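Practice problem 4.
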């Protein structure tokens, strides 16, 4: 009897190698800098929905290629609605080690600190992010993702019933320095999202807890909310739900921002290694809860696609 350990999607030449049982797959046999066929785009989309984050190796993307790739899957947003960009492409956000050093120091406090879903302070957070590694440390600097649909599924029935009826306030952290305060203050984004969202494509229920952004649970006393959030955050980053990716120059990670949270590395701050990554995000829709109610805007404007 033969068994297939590396399923492939027929017809498009893309080989899918899962990295864990519940999340993450490496995709081989596709050149992201080239013209993707409709079948390749469909296969990558399907893999993204199934595996939540997909990875590609040895890709030769520059900024223009990165943006062109993103356009095959949606409408790129401006690089960052709060922090902007210094790059020559308005869609490309630089993630450099020196800029995030302050985050890095803060991130070692608790096991869930630093885990986040991208920009959930917006009423319509990006639906997906595409991150490419350009300068990669020889070791260290791995990124981790967690499957928030599975995190919901693994809650007990009584807890599911409780969290399905709750909503939470998402906003950026309190200012750490003057520059941060000025930028966040200039565009004060805040949104109330359901604590459980329904994925618009898969229909899965998602435990929509973005630890770095969620500040309180609506209608709960501060102490009640904090205790429940700490329980949910610790649960959401259980190792069984996660995958860890070792980068190399030319690696690309493409994740479903509606069903995952991720953790930027902090170990590199103990080294002199440089790390330069670039990210493009795809414009997303307003999340909807199990009861059909959409998220609510508390401050700022929805994110609009980057105009060309
Ligand atoms: Fe992120």
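Answer key:
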């Amino acid at each position: 009897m033969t068994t297939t350990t590396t399923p492939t999607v027929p017809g498009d030449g893309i080989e899918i190698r899962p990295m864990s049982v519940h999340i993450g797959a490496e995709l081989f046999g596709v050149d992201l800098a080239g013209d993707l066929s409709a079948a390749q785009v469909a296969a990558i989309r399907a893999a993204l929905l199934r595996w939540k984050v997909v990875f590609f190796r040895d890709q030769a993307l520059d900024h223009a290629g990165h943006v062109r790739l993103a356009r095959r899957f949606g409408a790129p947003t401006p690089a960052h609605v709060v922090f902007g960009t210094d790059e020559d492409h308005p869609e490309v956000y630089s993630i450099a080690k020196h800029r995030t050093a302050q985050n890095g120091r803060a991130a070692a406090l608790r096991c869930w600190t630093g885990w986040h879903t991208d920009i959930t302070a917006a009423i319509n957070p990006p639906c997906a992010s595409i991150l490419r590694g350009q300068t990669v440390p020889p070791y260290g600097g791995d990124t981790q993702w967690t499957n928030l649909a599975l995190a919901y599924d693994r809650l007990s029935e009584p807890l599911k019933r409780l969290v399905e009826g709750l909503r939470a306030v998402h906003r950026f952290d309190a200012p750490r320095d003057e520059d941060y305060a000025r930028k966040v203050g200039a565009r004060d984004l805040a949104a109330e999202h359901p604590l459980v969202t329904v994925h618009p494509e898969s229909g899965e229920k998602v435990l929509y807890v973005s630890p770095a952004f969620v500040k309180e649970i609506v209608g709960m006393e501060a102490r009640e909310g904090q205790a429940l959030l700490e329980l949910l955050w610790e649960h959401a980053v259980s190792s069984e739900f996660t995958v860890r990716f070792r980068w190399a120059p030319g690696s690309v990670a493409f994740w479903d921002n509606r069903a995952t949270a991720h953790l930027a590395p902090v170990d590199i701050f103990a080294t002199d290694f440089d790390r330069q990554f670039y990210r493009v995000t795809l414009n997303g829709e307003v999340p909807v809860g199990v009861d059909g109610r959409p998220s609510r805007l508390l401050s700022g404007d929805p994110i609009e696609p980057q105009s060309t």
